[in-house]
Amino acid sequence: MDKKQNINKDKKPGVNLTWVYMAVIFILGFLIFNDSFSSSGYNKEVPYTEFQEHIAKHRGTEIKIEKNSSTAYLTINPDQVRTVFKRSVKEVGKNPTVSTRYGSLDKLEGFVESVPGMHITYTEETNYFNYFLSFILPTLLLVGLWFLLFRRMGSGGGSGGIFSVGKSKARLIEKGEGTHVSFKDVAGQEGAKEEVKEIVDFLKNPSKYTELGGKIPKGALLVGPPGTGKTLLAKAVAGEAGVPFFSLSGSDFVEMFVGVGASRVRDLFRQAKEKAPSIVFIDEIDAIGRARSGKSAIGTNDERENTLNQLLTEMDGFGTNSGVIVMAATNRVEILDSALLRPGRFDRQIQLDLPELSERIAIFKVHLAPLKLDESLDVDFLARQTPGFSGADIANVCNEAALIAARRNSPSVNIQHFLDAIDRTIGGLEKKGKVMTAEEKRRIAIHEAGHASVSWLIEYGNPLVKVTIIPRGRALGAAWYLPEERVNSTQEHLLDDICSLVAGRAAEEIVTGQISTGALNDLSRATKEAFSIVAYYGMGKEVHNLCYYNEQDNGFVKPYSEQTAQLIDEEVKRIVNEQYQRAKDIILSHRDQLLQLAEMLVEHEVVFTEDVESIFGKRPWKSRTDELLEEQRKEEEGEDAAKEDKE
């Protein structure tokens, strides 16, 4: 019973249709009343000269003059009805009249007096119907329009109409309701989960920490690239924490009215304090938390800054152990105001990075659970195929694989469906119908064979997965690799990456004697990586041990002189040219094998690792990813053995 009462209490009042029906009935009744009890029947408005003619020919004897409307009415005799109206007496009804607007009352009176037998009556009657249509009805419509407008505008903040504009739009998840998301649904990000679990424990058992003199943190900021699970982790907190959870977005504070954002912040924290212990979660906090500008420039948003100031005041205003913790999420922490990030407001920054190999395996297991999978599916292989993928990307791959399997009427989702889904996610949809000449197809095959050959023959080249010349998206061909997941990279690693990037153009020049525009993306990536080597990592010969990286670089100010800029340009040119010549030397020494691989590509359009291995032989260098997987398997086997011994 209480639950039903709460539901009815939370419902927003709608428009009462009874009042609408009553208004319609009133208007119809007024029209009927006005028509039924009107003092005159049928009326015809005529010019003033025609009105004088009717009087002169004695077609009526009674004249009524309305002074307030400057209108004169002549009641037509029954025997003159057909002459005046061209209608029968039944059609015009009782007491038909003709009317006109007069300019001068004195002249009209003088004319009527000159005609014998005429009677004049004076009235100041008001036409209530015209008055209603001209004044009252537009006023009612305008008031009703404003009422509906303010009602809609205020509906987002509560049931108080316009007075609720400044109310918080936060969604409240009460204790016991939850979001049906728990920490088990958040795979990977174990470090972030541990910190968040500690916050939940703070709220459930505050005395455990305060008795030792500890202070509950006031805020936790979830930081990471898009798709890494910041909002999902917050949902898990809402599901796990047995306390009220207020959830809203940073844009919910932004409004066109001055002072509304600050008012909503005050209302949000007032509600949170009333229900303490509680959690407030603000998603995309950079919408209001952007760093404040010292100058009032064109385009600045004073309302946003006022909202931020109120948020800073509220976060630093409530008591230390009041039991209200603020959580927020952003992927642009570098643009947030420094006052927002200081201890005492957001005491902790919880970093959520792109998942590593072991974390991707755990994420795949979560998203593969609801799918009908082929028994031979290798989860470790799928994780290796998706380096750099976020949790959202992996969820999308699993869903796309299921859709592909259903499209092909497959009884289960197998490894090929996942590979096709990964290819589509990375490169886009296949364009098998794209028309290419035999010469263009061979040039593309040579270009891709160049990438595959050099990356296979250098020590730190990424292990090859497959090469294709089937157009995808904007690319005419592509080579898929398994990038090594390194904690950091040496200069040799970076130079080998550049060498494999420029190998496609080098192969074109050596085999065909010409170069094409197909290397645009390769050259762009190689140039950026060479620039990073010199300007960011301090690995240049002339510009050595210096870093000019600036997180807040706006592109207008360079943190180095023109002379240094010239040195950087020369270093970048030298690095790219040296690696281009190195790629050419490797290709020249393996020209026949490259041509064999290119011909295989022309014939089959797709070449896999086994095909490249049959041409070049096995790589003498062991993959670091394989080493990590072996170590992980050994650890799992050791844990299983330890469990068996205990049992």
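[next item in queue]
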Amino acid sequence: MTIPDPVFEWLELSPVLVVFVAACLGVIIEAVVPRKARFYCQLVLAEISLLSSVGFLVFNGVRGAWGPLAMKAVMLDGPAFVAWLALLVFGFLALLVFAERKINAGATAFAALASAVPGSATESEAIAQRREHTEIFPLALFSIAGMMVFVAANDLLTMFIALEVMSLPLYLMSGMARSRRILSQEAALKYFLLGAFASAFFLFGIALLYGYSGSFNLARIADSLGFSTMNRGLLLCGIGLMAVGLLFKAGVVPFQFWVPDVYTGAPTPVTGFMAICTKLAAVVGLARVFYVALGAERWSWQTLFAVLAIATMLVGVILALTQTDLKRLLAYSAISHAGFILTAVVGAYQNVAAGRVNAFGSIIFYLIAYGFGIIAAFAIITTVRDEGGEATRLQSWNGLGRKNPLLAGVFAFLLLSFAGIPLTGGFIGKWEVFASAWAGGFWWLAITAVGFSLVAAYVYIKVIMAMFFEEPDETVVVGKASLFTWIPVAIGALATLYLGIFPEHLMELVSNLQIFLR
């Protein structure tokens, strides 16, 4: 048997390779660069690598470098291209928030010594020495590299490896908050344990699908449907187990239990990073598996996904109404948004199968519009402070509009976008999602989603009312943040406004790209 020589398209893979190599260099920096110089070395390296990756990606897009890469392990098609671009942009903005030190008295939001017992003498000594975890930057780069491979993976083994590469750094980063250390470590432990179970389900599903089809390649799995001599039970069990792993990452009910605790306990910059990047990677990866490999089995999963979408919107919206902590409120909001996105995933397949290629564009548009808003929102949360640090209690935001009308106005605008109010990117995103579900024949799901969207608006209006119509809490102040925080806030707000007024430019981009090559 002759084993062919491995072939890699280095230029086409350069967007991923640049990020991965930069992450490895970041590990070396931690070992050889003096502690005082590490912060800016890591920040500059990380941001330059992301910008360089964007440059390589655009160059490859212009020259039409589409198709299978790395011996068909990766597929660079329309969804992968847009997802890579979005991940790089959101990663760039999120790492700016990671770098904020001015608002924390010269230190980042990350623990001085994450391995120290909270409240111990070791931790106190590390704080006195003004230590900080600069390895947060290479960890984030490793996670972004894993996400990029995950959304473009063309076989299930590559997808599983990418899933672990993107997940393991997130488990670590979730437990590295400088304040509320025990809560942060509890969140990280819950995320790790539940994530490990989800990964086990995903891997078991891969094994069953391989047993049914005899291949890990998505296209070959699709070709085997209906022709395999293996028991159909292998296929259905494999679909179910793989769905568990993918829906867990997206925060879909009933696999959403990690979301509120992790969003609340993780450092707020990390929460903003996870809120969009993890969700974007999970949704695009989910669509790739079920559209490309399991499209012929849509009768086995479409209705199930529709029911889960309704359950997700119900749980997210109802529990968000009862929250008194702003980060936890946005966590349940993120769960409801996962339900809206899953609504589009269900309807979009029917449209893609019918040749309406703009259907998947509704999913990408929604994710991009939501991403700009959520990163800016969590960046704003880091600026509202009390004696204990970030003031995340909803009551602490009372009267913020009187203290800082501009900040409160921007935050209110972002909340209106999450609610789907016109002239915001969120409104266009929801409109496209509902239209996609309706055109796909799931009119009842679209109507249900519209109803939940109307109820969800109260969640955000409640926060706006507190900011502008309640008496201010005198113990709460708006901290003086640096440009590292204000740049993501400004870009997020302006992008939300632009996508609400001129959505056609992004829609044209995401609608005309090649959809899920095989």
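[queue empty]
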